[in-house]
Amino acid sequence: MKTFDYRGFNAAGQASRGLVEALNPKEAREKLAAGGILAERVTVTGKPLHFRTELRANFYRELGALLTAGIPMVRALEMLIQAVRQGATGSLLAGVRDRVREGQSLAESVAGIGSTVTGFEHAVMLAGERAGTLAPVLGKLADFLEDQEQLREKVRRALIYPSIVVGVGLIVAMVMLGVLVPRAQALLADSGHALPRLTRVMLGVGRGMAHWGGVLVAGVVVAVVGLRRRRLRDDGFRRAWDRKLFRLPVWGRGYAQLCCLRFARTLAILLRGGVSLVEAITLAGSATGSAWVAQLAVEQADAVRHGARLSEAIGRIPPLSSALPEWVQIGEESGDLAGMLEHAGNRTAEHWDRYVSRALALLEPALLLVIGVFVLLVTLSVLLPVLSLTQSISLP
What we know:
The protein has helices at 25-34, 53-68, 73-83, 87-101, 106-113, 119-131, 134-191, 197-233, 235-245, 251-272, 277-287, 291-305, 310-315, 318-321, 325-334, 337-394; strands at 2-9, 15-22, 38-44. It is mostly helical. The protein folds into two domains: 2-44; 147-396, no CATH class. It has a three-stranded antiparallel β-sheet. The chain is flat and about 90 Å long.
């Protein structure tokens, strides 16, 4: 028995959409017709779709709560499907339910229907199923995903105001360079007076933007697209590029703190879920989002496999060596490694929040200053010819 997603019209001619269980599309259409629905499209659920982070977090949390209440897995999934009957989410969950009924694990079922489900999530769920602690592990996983989404949302919100300031400043500058400065030039040309040097410079900038602005923008777009494609195809280039990001003056420090935060929290969740230390190091490295850290984590996981201490291994990963080795060493000595990693993640999160707040607090006035100076120069390039012409007229 499979679940199909259908679209059609009911007896009243109104659009109808939902899910129906059947052995094949033909039987699904027959069931719908018997219920008074003319199916326009019938497709099997469970195809790889974009499963957004917030939706995955809600799914893990609600499923964990239902499992904690003693509800069987298939029944819990059916209840969640009924709660979100319409839309792509219902189709995704129906695909998970069908795979679980066929005998697959929850980890394999979720990984098969969501193109955005990470290897970290798969490993956490698989470890929870093996250890018999799936319900609490799903809750921890939901907390982690929500924390990551809050971090992204905080950065996006913080960049809204600077983006608006830059956009407005550029628009004002283009209007003044394209309209006001040329009119000032025409005014002085009619009077026979020479243009001030600043006005000539700004006119040159305006002409350059008019002639080469489109080419420059197109070149930047082509370069960005080319870099993104190469990063996706070339692992060596992606690691080299990522390594350079840590060397940037302001970005590098914040990026290192973010990697420490993600690594510590991910490793704590994996260890509490029953994942082996060697496998957990590799998965935690991937969860940082840094290709370079992920490669170093694989190398140090192999060192741990051959007897190295975790604190020493993390100390050999430069972006993590400044914040985590001491906490890991305390956890190894106290026997509560996961607990100390969670504590280290919380402390690193506090440092990262303060660092981002300070950086953004400096970014806004810096952008205002740059835009203000540029607008001032354009304004002076307009006013100086007018003042020069006024003085020449007033002279006897």
